[in-house]
Design brief:
CATH topology of the domain at 112-281 in chain B: Rossmann fold
Radius of gyration of chain B: 21 Å
Distance between the termini of chain B: 56 Å
Strand content of chain B: 15-25%
Strand order of the largest sheet of chain A: 1-4
Shape of chain B: globular
Number of domains of chain A: 2
Helix content of chain B: 25-40%
Oligomer: heterodimer
CATH architecture of the domain at 112-281 in chain B: 3-Layer(aba) Sandwich
Radius of gyration of chain A: 27 Å
Number of helices of chain A: 10
Largest sheet of chain B: 6 strands, mixed
Helix content of chain A: 25-40%
Structural class of chain A: alpha+beta
Structural class of chain B: alpha/beta
Largest sheet of chain A: 2 strands, antiparallel
Strand content of chain A: 5-15%
Order of helices and strands of chain A: HHHHEHHEEHEEHHEEHE
Number of strands of chain A: 8
Number of strands of chain B: 17
Largest interface: A-B, 15 and 16 residues
CATH superfamily of the domain at 112-281 in chain B: NADH-ubiquinone oxidoreductase 51kDa subunit
Chain lengths: 270, 441
């Protein structure tokens, strides 16, 4: 008797479930919306990170705009890089040029808790922008990395982490060059450099050399030794701060030599 | 007893006013070097008119208003311009400042000033004089007064409300000025009456200053002026512009609009006194009352201070610190700004300096929001602070804006009651900054 009840239950469930399943199958065919194949293909070509660096809410938004023709710029997807670009060009039948070199974010500061002096002890909201509202940050240098990690919050791929001594670092292999961290950084210390760059300037201070020296032991003092020693334009000092000219190819040796000459060791090998 | 008028919600922080309430106003020593910032007001900084080495007279114009919403800056002492330097203001911004070394003779200080009859002047002349004398709102927001007292075409002022609430803990400057300069304040109010022609003039005052209220009422009866004194419930932030309007008129200023939208213009009592001095004696705004108080100050008091005097000098006059202060605040503890440099000068808008010991600054770690809703029942603007905070925590700026982030008056009531010690106001300031950044794009 008991076994009959169980079997009946199973049978009922099967029949009922089957009927409902049929209903769903019919509804799927009858009410299905034809999805634009181009949009689907474009979405597949995009990396699907939804980082928002293209200016749309996500990858599908960008794909729809491209398919509808309201946007014709194929180069807006930074994380996708060359492969996405080529795939999209193929789908839309547009010739694409080779994209520029992949860029990655890097904080241009080595002034950690030991090396950079502080104006005051900060005890407020753990957000660099909030600290920046209070006397341009708690460090004496107003251009350095505050290390509270506003950039970490907006990084879609968790490429940024705290170093533990008052700075942040970026994992260049994970970075998708979306630029969110550059946008949010209130001091402007987060900058994009080529992925294959060999050297970078580990300072962002636009203070006069004397002031920088008083603020931090690893700050660029704008002494122009690098600029004068290597006058081919590999280094340019603007606003008391050295900038590497990455367009100048094959300058490894120049940079290595300059790094040795730099009196504050601001030209740092990556 | 009829219950006193007030606004909905709000908080009751401990007053701390007893430290200075019963003291006499002291005159602070003149600064040996006056550091006078060129940006002491809301709006464009003043344009510097002097160079290092120049000799300046007392009350000489040293910074010229650069635009409509800007204010003139005058030298508070006679002397020589030492240098023009960049300093941090207590609000965290940078500003150019003129450092003047005190030498030479005072032209007004210690002498009898000549009274001028203002009743025969036309309104534009009065307004122009207020502008020339660099008068700004003395309550702390430092909005240029001549702009406030210029009615836009087609608008009329129904209520002129004088803000004598002083709801910030510790501060007693406004209280003192009412007790000592009530007659002058009332004359200042009459000057504003001539400019705005309001239907009603009401002085809003918190019920903890009834001695000042009675004194004002007595004088009003004696002078025969049509001014009403409205005692208000002791509650924070009773002195916030919109809370005050709500308490006195029952009207709510619409979101994003100025009080004039509901026919109201507000001014602080200190501003009324500054208007009086500017119009009657042609005296620029070069000194003000400053409360120096807090648990870390040896002899707290209210001082008559020349603009440009450093906090260090003022603290010295109070006998120094009882112990190393944990926090020094410009303004009151609720809305004031903590600052780190004792060489920060007193400015037109500095209503007080509060130095607190570690015991009074309870440092607590931030925990997660408990969703208890205390902030919601504290917010005088009827916002949902915890929701806005969470939106901003996730960088959802647009959603935060839709939840009326811009209506926040940054009074700090939500952060005061928050059991999780969330830095709510600080987050809202970041959010507002992001909104401005997005609007510029």
């Amino acid at each position: 008797m008991e076994i009959m009840r169980i079997l009946l239950g199973i049978l009922f469930t099967l029949v009922f479930g089957g009927a409902l399943g049929m209903g769903l199958a019919v509804a799927f065919r009858k009410f299905s919306i034809e999805k634009d194949k181009v949009v689907g293909d474009l979405e597949n070509a995009l990396p699907g990170l939804n980082c928002g660096s293209c200016g749309y809410a996500g990858c599908s938004g960008y794909a729809e705009a491209l398919a509808a023709g309201t946007d014709t710029d194929l180069t807006k997807c930074k994380p996708g890089g060359q492969s996405s670009l080529e795939a999209m060009g193929e789908i839309l039948g547009v010739a694409v040029e080779a994209s520029a070199t992949k860029m990655v974010a890097r904080p241009h500061c080595l002034g950690n808790n030991e090396k950079a002096l502080k104006k005051y002890e900060y005890a407020g909201l753990q957000d660099c922008r909030a600290a920046m509202n209070q006397f341009k940050g708690f460090k004496q240098c107003e251009y350095g990395c505050l290390g509270l990690g506003s950039c970490i919050k907006v990084c879609p791929v968790d490429a940024i982490s705290k170093t533990g001594d008052g700075l942040v670092k970026v994992d260049a292999d994970l970075c998708i060059s979306c630029g969110n961290c550059v946008d949010i950084c209130p001091t402007g210390v987060m900058k994009m450099i080529p992925f294959d760059a060999d050297y970078y300037i580990a300072c962002n201070s636009k203070d006069k050399g004397k002031d920088t020296k008083g603020n931090c032991s690893v700050g660029c003092i704008g002494c122009k030794i690098c600029e004068k020693k290597f006058p081919e334009g590999a280094f340019v000092v603007q606003d008391n701060l050295c900038v590497i000219n990455y367009d100048e190819k094959d300058r490894d040796e120049t940079r290595a030599e300059a790094a040795e000459k730099c009196p504050v060791n601001c030209i740092v090998k990556i | 007893m009829r219950s006193l008028a007030t606004f909905p919600r709000g908080i009751h922080p401990p007053g701390g006013k007893g430290l200075t309430e019963s003291t006499e106003i002291r005159t602070a020593a003149l600064p040996p070097v006056a550091i006078i910032p060129l940006s002491q007001h809301i709006g464009a900084p003043a344009k510097c008119l002097v160079n290092p080495g120049d000799t300046v007279q007392e009350e000489q114009l040293i910074g010229e208003a650069s635009g409509f919403v800007s204010a003139n800056i005058h030298s508070s002492v006679p002397g020589t311009v030492k240098d023009i330097r960049e300093i941090y203001l207590p609000n965290g911004m940078k500003s150019q400042a003129v450092a003047i070394e005190l030498t030479g003779e005072f032209t007004r200080l210690g002498k009898e000033s000549k009274r001028e009859e203002w009743k025969s002047l036309d309104n534009d002349a009065i307004r122009n004089r207020i502008r020339e004398m660099g008068v700004v709102g003395m309550g702390g927001a430092t909005f240029p007064t001549h702009v406030k007292l210029s009615l836009p075409e087609g608008k009329s002022c129904e209520y002129f409300i004088i803000n004598a609430v002083e709801c910030e803990p510790y501060l007693t400057s406004d209280h003192k000025i009412m007790l000592t300069q009530a007659e002058e304040i009332l004359e200042g109010i009459e000057i504003v009456r001539k400019l705005l022609n309001p239907e009603k003039v009401i002085i809003g005052i918190e019920a903890n200053k009834m001695d000042a209220a009675r004194k004002l009422e007595e004088l009003i009866a004696r002078m025969g002026v049509d001014v009403e004194v409205a005692p208000l419930k002791v509650k924070y932030p009773q002195g916030a512009e919109k809370s005050l309007i709500r308490a006195i008129t029952g009207r709510e200023v619409p979101s994003g609009k100025l009080p004039l939208e509901v026919g109201v213009i507000n001014a602080n009592v200190g501003t009324c006194f500054a208007i009086y001095e500017a119009v009657v004696y042609n005296k620029p705004l070069v000194e003000r009352l400053v409360t120096v108080s807090g648990s870390a100050v040896k002899n707290p008091g209210v001082f008559k201070v020349r603009v440009g005097t450093t906090v260090r000098d003022l603290i010295e006059e109070c006998g120094g610190f009882t112990e190393e202060p944990e926090k020094i605040i410009s303004g009151g503890p609720m809305m004031g700004f903590a600052f780190f440099d004792l060489d920060t000068p007193i400015m037109k808008g500095t209503s007080g300096i509060v130095a607190l010991t570690g015991k009074d600054v309870k440092k607590s770690g931030v925990t997660a929001c408990l969703s208890c809703g205390k902030c919601v029942s504290a917010c005088p603007m009827g916002l949902n602070p915890t929701q806005i905070y969470k939106y901003l925590d996730f960088e959802m700026i647009k959603e935060a804006a839709d939840t009326r982030l811009m209506d926040c008056v940054e009074c700090g009531s939500c952060a005061y009651v928050c059991p999780a010690h969330l830095p709510l106001v600080q987050m809202f300031r970041v959010g507002k900054g992001e909104m401005r950044k997005n609007a510029q794009k």
